[in-house]
Design brief:
Elements lengths: L1 H32 L1 E4 L2 H17 L25 H11 L3 H13 L1 H10 L29 H17 L2 H22 L1 E3 L5 E3 L17 H24 L1 H11 L3 H12 L5 E2 L4 E2 L9 E2 L18 H5 L1 E2 L6 H7 L6 H11 L11 H10 L3 H12 L16 H15 L3 E3 L2 E3 L10 E8 L2 E8 L3 E5 L1
Parallel strand pairs: 6-7
Antiparallel strand pairs: 1-10, 2-3, 4-5, 8-9, 10-11, 11-12
The structure holds 5-hydroxymethyl-3,4-dihydroxypiperidine.
5-hydroxymethyl-3,4-dihydroxypiperidine binds next to loops.
C-alpha cells in the first residue's frame, strides 16, 4: 500500500515538481555538508562521492540503519555494526543531526532485543549485538563478534556526542537515558572489582576493536570507553533527577533503577583498570598483548595480506599485530585524556604493528598523525581512504561500498586536518594544511548553528552562516 501511495503521489505531482523537490533537498544537503579541497581534483571527487553515497545509504525512519556496505552489495549481508556509531554517526551529527537522531532511535527501537541478548549472555542490563539488521545478534564467529562488547560503550559515546553537539535533551530524556542506564548496568555486572589488582575494576574476556587480538582481559580501548560511559551515565542520572524529575521517576520505575546503582557506576569509573607498561611508557592494548611475540612483517610477502585470509586466526592471535586502530582509536575519541607526549609515544609503538587490513583503520591513523604533527603520514593515510571505492583500493568493491571508510574520510578532514574536537561541550579546531593542497573548506552544524571553516597556509577563517 505504501508503494501505491508513492505511485499515486508521483502521478499527482508530475515529474517537474518531483525533480524540483529533489533538487531543493539536495541543495540543502550540500549547503550543510559539502567539503572543498582546493588543489586536488581526484580527492575532491572522492570526498563528494563519499558524502553522496552516505546519504543514499542511510536509513531515516528510526527502524532502519546504515549497513557496512550501504545498500550497494551483499558483503556483510546488509548488517549494521559499530561502524554506525563511531564513523557514520559523527558525520551526520555534525552535518544532518536529524538523521543522527534517527540512527540512535534505531538502537532504542531494538533495546528490548539487547536486553534479551544480555540475558542470553547471563548478564544484567542490555548488550547490543555486534552485527544485526533487526536488533538480534547475527555474529557467527563470536571471538570477533559478540565478544566485541565495546559496542555498548560506542553507542553511549555516540549518544553523548550527539547530545553535546545538538543539545537535544528531548532525545536523551525520552530514549537515550534508558539505553545509557541499561548498558551501564550491563558493565557493572560483567566487570568486577578485582582484589588481585588492588580492587581496580576489571573487564575480562572481551575483544577490542582490533580483530587480530581476541578474547582478552582489560582491553584498554574498552576500559577507557566504559569509564567514559559510566561517568556520563552517573552525571546524566544527576541531571535528569534535578531537571526532568517526572521523566526520571518514570524511568527509574520502569527499569527498577536505584540510586545505589548510579553511585557504583561512579566508583567503577574511578577505579577502572587501564593496563600501562612502565618500561615502555605506553598503554598496553590489554593484559597480555605486550608479552606476545611481534609479527614478522619483514618476511611476510605482500600477497599474504589481508592476514585473515591467509593465516588461521590462532596464528594471528599469538602475535603482536593489529588489524586496525585500537588504542590509537581511544586516543582520538577521548583525546583530552592523553597528553601530546602520550599520543606520540603510543602511536609510535602501535603504528608499525598495524596492518590496516580493515578499511576502518587508515582514517583514524590519519587523524592522530595530523594531531601529532606528521602531515605526510596524515595525507598518505587519508589518500588511502578517500578514494577506496572509486579506485577499488581493497579489490573488493564488488561486495559493496565501505561506508565506514567513506565517513572516515570526512573525519580525516574535519577531525584530522581541521583538528575539530568536542570535549566537555567545548567545540575547538586546530587546522593544518597538507603540502599537497592550496586550501580546504568544510561546514559544521553545532548547537543549531551552521559554521563554515576555511583553512589555507596563511589563514583560517571561521564564518557563522
Ligand atoms: O565493524 C567492522 C570491523 O571493525 C572490522 N571488520 C569489518 C566490520 C564491518 O565493517
Amino acid at each position: 500500500s505504501r508503494s501505491n501511495e508513492i505511485l499515486h503521489l508521483a502521478d499527482h505531482s508530475g515529474f517537474e515538481a518531483l525533480a524540483q523537490e529533489q533538487q531543493a533537498y539536495l541543495d540543502r544537503y550540500w549547503a550543510h555538508t559539502d567539503v572543498e579541497i582546493h588543489g586536488d581534483l581526484a580527492l575532491q571527487q572522492g570526498i563528494r562521492f563519499n558524502a553522496f553515497q552516505l546519504l543514499q545509504s542511510v536509513g531515516r525512519d528510526g527502524v532502519t540503519n546504515i549497513g557496512a556496505k550501504g545498500l550497494t552489495g551483499e558483503g556483510y549481508e546488509g548488517h549494521y555494526f559499530w561502524d554506525t556509531e563511531m564513523y557514520m554517526l559523527p558525520f551526520f551529527t555534525f552535518t544532518q543531526p536529524e538523521i543522527s537522531r534517527k540512527l540512535l532511535e534505531f538502537r532504542y527501537a531494538t533495546l528490548d532485543k539487547a536486553r534479551e541478548r544480555a540475558a542470553v549472555m547471563s548478564q544484567k542490563g542490555a548488550l547490543f549485538p555486534w552485527r544485526t539488521i533487526d536488533g538480534a545478534e547475527n555474529s557467527a564467529y563470536f571471538p570477533a563478534g559478540t565478544a566485541q562488547m565495546h559496542i555498548n560503550a560506542d553507542i553511549a559515546y555516540a549518544i553523548k556526542q550527539y547530545v553535546l553537539a545538538t543539545g537535544d535533551y528531548d532525545f536523551l530524556v525520552t530514549k537515550g537515558a534508558e539505553i545509557l542506564f541499561e548498558t551501564s548496568r550491563f558493565w557493572l555486572d560483567l566487570g568486577y572489582f578485582n582484589p588481585a589488582r588492588g580492587g581496580a575494576f576489571c573487564i575480562d574476556a572481551v575483544t577490542g576493536p582490533d580483530e587480530y587480538t581476541a578474547i582478552v582481559n582489560n582491553n584498554a580501548y574498552t576500559n577507557f570507553m566504559v569509564q567514559d560511559q559510566l561517568y556520563y551515565a552517573h552525571e546524566m542520572a544527576g541531571i535528569l533527577s534535578k531537571q526532568y524529575p517526572e521523566h526520571f521517576e518514570r524511568l527509574k520505575q520502569k527499569i527498577s533503577l536505584t540510586e545505589h546503582e548510579t553511585l557504583v557506576w561512579l566508583e567503577a569509573a574511578d577505579k577502572m583498570f587501564i593496563p600501562f607498561d612502565e618500561g615502555l611508557g605506553i598503554y598496553a592494548q590489554d593484559d597480555t598483548f605486550l608479552s606476545k611475540k611481534k609479527w614478522d612483517f619483514e618476511h611476510t610477502p605482500a600477497d599474504k595480506y589481508p592476514l585473515l585470509l591467509n593465516y588461521h586466526p590462532l596464528v594471528i592471535y599469538r602475535h603482536q599485530v593489529l588489524k586496525q586502530a585500537d588504542l590509537v582509536m581511544a586516543m582520538f575519541l577521548l583525546g583530552d585524556q592523553f597528553s601530546l607526549a602520550d599520543k606520540i609515544r603510543n602511536y609510535n609503538y602501535y603504528e608499525p604493528l598495524t596492518t590496516h587490513d580493515s578499511s576502518l583503520s587508515p582514517c583514524i591513523h590519519s587523524i592522530i598523525s595530523a594531531e601529532i604533527g606528521d602531515l605526510t603520514g596524515a595525507y598518505s593515510y587519508f589518500d588511502r581512504t578517500v578514494r577506496m571505492d572509486l579506485d577499488d583500493i581493497n579489490r573488493n568493491v564488488k561486495d559493496g561500498l565501505h561506508t565506514a571508510a567513506m565517513a572516515g574520510s570526512w573525519l580525516s578532514i574535519v577531525n584530522g586536518f581541521g583538528g575539530m574536537r568536542l570535549c566537555g561541550g567545548m567545540l575547538s579546531f586546530n587546522p593544518s594544511v597538507p603540502a599537497q593542497w592550496e586550501s580546504y573548506r568544510f561546514k559544521i552544524t553545532c548547537a543549531g548553528q551552521l559554521l563554515d571553516i576555511f583553512a589555507s597556509d596563511t589563514e583560517v577563517i571561521y564564518t557563522l552562516l
